[in-house]
Amino acid sequence: MCLEAGEVVENTRKMLTRFFNGTDSNRLCFSYNSTDALNMIISGMLKKGDHAITTTIEHNSVIRPLYHLAKFNGVEVDHIPFNSKGFVDPEDFKKKFKKNTRIVIVNHASNVIGTIQPVKEIGKLCREKGIPFAIDVSQSAGKIPIDMEELNVDVIAFTGHKSLLGPTGIGGLYVREGIEIRHTRAGGTGVRSAVKTHLYEYPYRLEYGTANTLGIAGLHAGLKWIEKKGLNNIHGHEMKLTTMLRDGLKKIKGVTLYCQDDLSDHISILPCNVDGMEAINTGTLLDVDYNIAIRTGLHCAPLVHEQLGTTEIHGAARFGIGPFTTEEHITAAITAVEEIADMQKKKSG
Ligand SMILES: Cc1ncc(COP(=O)(O)O)c(C=O)c1O
Fold first, then answer.
1. Which helix (DSSP H) or strand (DSSP E) does residue 136 occupy?
2. What percent of the chain clears pLDDT 70, i.e. is strictly above it?
3. Is residue 54 within 6 Å of ligand 1 at its C-beta?
4. Whose CA is nearest to atom 10 of ligand 1?
5. pLDDT in tens, 44-92
6. In CATH, which of 3.40.50.1820, 3.40.640.10, 3.30.70.890, 3.90.1210.10 is domain 2-229?
7. Is it the case that residue 15 has pLDDT exceeding 80?
8. Phi/psi at 138 (nearest 5 deg)?
9. Which of 182, 199, 284, 299 is most buried (most C-beta within 10 Å)?
10. For residues 156 and 173, is the Cβ–Cβ distance under 8 A?
11. Residue 349 has pLDDT above 80, yes or no
């Protein structure tokens, strides 16, 4: 039984390595989620006096660990803003490179506005300078193909419970050969127990304690489903429905959309607001009156909302379209938002 369980873990490691086009499955380490992986990357690659470049698209799982290092550990951080369409410009990174830049870290696809960032171009610039390049694929993994080689990426952090269709409590990172991440914890690895320090070699270097075997098995099932369905089919289905939703919402007077004009470099995430209504109220009405579940608020990405000017109104109402969403769901969502917007208009006279 133990060997069988171990096999599930190792097979999932191999499967994920293939999925991201890594070369050595031992360099695929499991963690609790992407926040855990990103913390290991950030604290294991930066030290006092180092400089990091990131973006205003990031989730708090990057913003906060970097902020802590900046506040308490003498690390300097630059945030590259996005343009009116929701994309960062690779040239802006180039302008910020310094002698002590030790990491560039970018959110591959925004969890607020859905824009896919030009990581290949940013990665190319980083390679030219010899600066390690990490991406957060929490939103993009399982939605679009991710080829680390093609994208010039050195490290990726992923989470299992979103579009990889696994359960909560499982995630991980892949670290390309030649990239060093110090271990910032120590503990049991299940092997070579007599060694006093935490093991140096991968995957043990970044894995601590008993593995989440159940989570890994669940993730394995999700990956198998995705492989069978095909990422291009999933993305095609999701973007067809996202376009339908965007077109429907755009026609409603009193609804504002954010960065949704051109969906060609987007994943299936769509933020909006009913004018004059706080996002949380839109979400509550959709939930209670229409049985439609969306995410509202700042989405753990406060800098995105700062730039969109939506902080004061407490964020946005964000629709997420998945492989199991149907045209009927989209039609129902458009009708619901239309009715909510009408109600709001009547209320505000
Ligand atoms: C872009 C992005 N990064 C990181 C995370 C954090 O994921 P987790 O909570 O699984 O660590 C999220 C979750 O919403 C996300 O959207």
1. strand 133-136
2. 100
3. no
4. 33
5. 999 999 999 999 999 999 999 999 999 999 999 999 999 999 999 999 9
6. 3.40.640.10
7. yes
8. -55, -40
9. 299
10. yes
11. no
Whether 159 lines ligand 1, by a CB cut-off of 6 Å, is yes
Residue range 231-347 forms a domain whose CATH class is alpha beta
Check pocket membership of 143 for ligand 1, CB cut-off 6 A: no
Ligand 1 pocket residue status of 107, Cβ below 6 Å: yes
The structure tokens 């994309």 sit at: 87
Ligand 1 pocket, mutate which of 30, 39, 61 (most atoms under 8 A from CB): 61
Report the atom number in ligand 1 closest to the C-alpha of 36: 11
Nearest ligand 1 atom, CA 34: 11
Atom of ligand 1 nearest to the CA of 159: 10
Domain residue limits, the chain: 2-229, 231-347
Here the tokens at position 301 are 């990405």
Kindly provide the b/e burial profile for residues 219-233, where b requires at least 16 CB atoms within 10 angstroms of the residue's own CB: bbebbeebeeeebee
What would the two tokens of residue 135 be? 């991406």
pLDDT score for 348? 85
Gap from CA of 142 to ligand 1 centroid (Å): 14
Do the domains spanning 2-229 and 231-347 agree at the CATH topology level?
A: no
